[in-house]
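So, who can interpret the following?
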Amino acid sequence: MPRLILFNKPYGVLSQFTDEGTGRPTLKPFIDLPGVYPAGRLDFDSEGLLLLTDDGRLQARIADPKYKTPKTYLVQVEGDAHDAALDPLRQGVHLKDGMTRPAEVEAIDPPDLWPRDPPIRVRKSIPDFWLRLTITEGRNRQVRRMTAAIGHPTLRLVRWSIGAWTLEGIPPGEWREVEG
């Protein structure tokens, strides 16, 4: 049976086990299991759910955009929330590498999350709000680029779920093994 690990990747950790000479933190101190590898990536400056497996087919099914696995993010952005501002995300946003698929998006109350270290940059003169955003592709820094394209730069990005797997009950830096 394939191994599947749900890991709550902290901010400032690479989504890989080694880093050639830069000294940035990697997965190695958090997950000491031989033969498991990330199924997809999560940026250094993003937090949240990272799946790891020892099964190549499962890894491809999770990470390959052709399978359209939904990924849901809790996103803190600059500005004021109103539906008209979010409509472009629902229709697809034009980025330098082409149009995105339509996203599911809604403004939400601030979620009950762990504190980020370091904290986000707060500007008293600029409000912020939270979104729940679900995409079915995984381009490089896609969510950040999408929110920036509509004039609401991302301040904090937490991947909450991939398909049916969620972070529920997993603190930052911790992991849980589930059935794949």
In short: The chain is about 15% helix and 30% strand. Helices lie at 56-63, 83-91, 142-149.
